[in-house]
Amino acid sequence: MRSRPTRTPRPLVAYLGLLALLACSARAPLYRDASAPIENRVADLLSRMTPEEKFGQLFAVAANVDPARDSVRDGLFGIQWRGPAADSLHPDATEYATQVNTLQRYFVERTRLGIPVIFFEEGLHGLTLPGATVFPQAIGLAASWDTALMRRVSTTIAGEAASRGVRQILSPVINLATDVRWGRTEESYGEDPLLTSAMAVAFIAPFERRGVITTPKHFVSNVGDGGRDSYPVNSGRRWMEETVFAPFEAAIRQAGARSIMAAYNSVDGEPASASHWLLTEVLRQRWGFNGFVISDAGGVGGANVLHNTAGSYAEAGARAIPAGLDVIFQTSVAHRQLFWPAFHDGSIPAAAIDAAVSRVLRAKFELGLFEHPYVAVDSVVGPNAASHELAREAAAASLTLLRNEGNTLPFSSAVRTLAVIGADAAEARLGGYSGPGANRESILTGLRSILPAEGAIRYEPGVPRLSGDLAAIPDSTFGAGLSAEYFDNIALTGSARVHRTDRNVNFSWPFGGPDSTLAYGWYSARWQGDFTAPLGESTSLVVTGDDGYRLYLDDVLVVDRWRKESFHSDSAALTPGHRYRLRLEYFENSGAGQIRLQWRRGQGAAWQAAIARAVASARSSDATVIVAGIEEGEFRDRASLRLPGHQEELIRAVAATGRPFAVVLIGGSAITMSEWVGKVGAVLLAWYPGETGGSAVADALFGRSNPAGRLPITFPLSEGQLPLSYWHLPTGRGDDYADLSGRPLFPFGHGLSYTHFEYSGLVVPASAQRGDSITVRFRITNTGTRDGDEVAQLYLRTQVSRVARPVLALAGFTRFRLKAGESRDVVLRLPPERFAILDPSLKRVVERGRFVILVGASSADLRLRGTLDIR
């Protein structure tokens, strides 16, 4: 007989069920279980989130957030936190970490699900916060051609970031500097795909290992025609695949970057932040990227206000998220309301929102933020002896000797008095996206440590970088300000739409009108007020604008350009001490607006007197160093590559003394020198050498170190040659101009030394199979009398191919030190992908054929040649 199953009484079943329910409710949710697989934790947390909480995880902000003031109860992706004051950086790193913990505690303990935020910051060449080490600017690090050094620098920055609670950096910039007029060339690793890729991998990998997410940017490519920032990119896909894509693919596949920043610009007419081809097809489907994509600050709204491909911010978001963007990055928490409607009304598919939120949550789980959301305030890492010394080593490695006729450098021990000329000798500029630095050393300070005797260093500031006779008008000049009227037409007719007081007239409106009530590119304005002309020297009032303007002084029309033209500058002479009644009128009828008032004072007397003082100092000294610099940066592209202001006149005047002198250049991009370089004995490019750069430059000038930096960009003879890169396809005919060579002033890879190196004994396999790695051997000997570093460079040339290939392409490089008289056998291994091309269908293949292998000291100084047949 079969026994009957035992039945549990129904009251007991109900009781047991209640116990089970109570146990489940007491058990922590799965997403809180650190032992559970991350994908399971993501799915569990996602299932618990409201639409508002999902949207919060897709919104980042670069602003100080106050939970008591800002509505952030639904959470945020992350915050670029700048300290307790919205307009300043907090001076103490420990206090910064304390504030980070306080804010994080709100999100972890006071929001419904307790999802921590990611604190992010810039870290291009050092964390951009006080109490952090500042290394040479990115272009200077690239000029070292030393990936091992880059890894050490990156490791230090990552440690300083993580110790403060910064778990993401919006770096590095791995766009190719295809046109050196681009103001952000200084932030890049130069023009070459291989060098940029190698530097990117060396920079990114230590951060990711340290638990700090990197954000290579800007995808893609941020520099367009004319070297203009965020200008439309309309180049063919073959060009993008062969050049600008390479560093991003390496960053993802080789270095493990977990975030990518979308660019501001459009690509083939589509905003980069809303390009399905870029963000989904290329990044995720082809490269296997499983991290998150963040917009540049305000970049998603740019589809509305800049590219005109969306009618509103909400519509712009509705296009970006399904295309593959994950995080909308804005500059105010209040901007959330601009994008929220698209997340609420079904404009964005739920699956696209969930996919983006999942990628963000995965990153937060991988960082361990749910288990360890706070940082140990007493363990903040800041500048120390080791980081200071590393910064100095990196600065020394970046210094690039461009010219050294007659062994002008290094200065000999016979130099007892040195004239040091130039504001940049004393300023110790660090370059864009820099923190303030710790114990910054100027070049002047460095030189004084070498020549400490009283009077040995004779400093003259010389002329300013910008023209010294044109200066901003202080706001106080106009007392309480200028009465301003803004009209919604271009003729100043009818009643003004906006009345306000402006402290000055120094305006640029590239993205909209002067007020939200005025249309972009269609308005007029009138400013009225009183001012007193300066005493003591001749002064002119200068009006600069890009459309129609007219200036009245004491009701007399003194400048009349009330017509549609281009950019102009006009001036009116003033009587010293006279009190004027001013009326300035302006209109814009086509696009971006710009109008400024400035002084022109002294009519040249000031800068000419400064040059005279510099010349006198040079004549009375054993040697002279002129430290000259450029002005550049984000949204500061340069039409002219000359040294700005009157610095070239200064150099020519000192050269006329016949005394030995060298020029040290401060800047992050190319400089044209045709008007003066032939008169100068030596030119040392210091880039922006970081907080210890002063000592490094001084050591190089006096031979305590031997420069070995190499150019990661091409220096043109003239702006008329641009864009100019060694990496280019063969021309259909010639390469020159009727009035100028097509060759550069200084080629990619160029850099001199105080010693000499000889190349010999090239060994290249006669043939190899497709898919083989190739080993190339050669010998280098230091034939000079000084120890020094050499950067050996290997270039490839394809002899015949189905598609045009570059006339020269960097395929390998290595930096190493040789003592005087020492030799070294150099081995470079080239993986199969160095020989690959994109065939006519854009498929990557290695073709059979002959390759020319060229080895040397630059892309123009090639010493050895061999051939290799791929079968």
Plain-language structure description:
This protein is of the alpha/beta class and 871 residues long. Helix content is 25%, strand content 23%. It is built from 20 helices and 37 strands. The strands form 9 sheets. The chain has a 6-stranded parallel beta sheet. A 6-stranded mixed beta sheet has the order 11-27-26-25-12-13, with helices on both faces. Strand 34 and strand 35 (844-845) form a beta hairpin. The longest helix has 18 residues, at 147-164. The protein is globular. The chain starts with 9 loop residues before the first helix and ends with a strand.
Main beta-sheet annotation: 6 strands, parallel
What is the average per-residue confidence, as pLDDT, rounded to a whole number? 93
Structural class: alpha/beta
Radius of gyration: 30 Å
Query: How far apart are the first and last residues' alpha carbons, in Å?
Result: 82 Å
Helices, by number, come to 20
Helix content: 25-40%
Poorly predicted regions: 1-6, 16-25, 85-90
Strand order of the largest sheet: 5-4-3-2-1-10
Q: Tell me what portion of residues adopts beta-strand conformation.
A: 15-25%
Strand tally, please? 37
Assign an overall shape: globular
Short summary of the structure?
The protein is an alpha/beta fold. The chain is 25% helix and 23% strand. The chain has 20 helices and 37 strands.
Annotation keywords:
single chain, about 850 residues, alpha/beta, 6-stranded parallel sheet, 37 strands
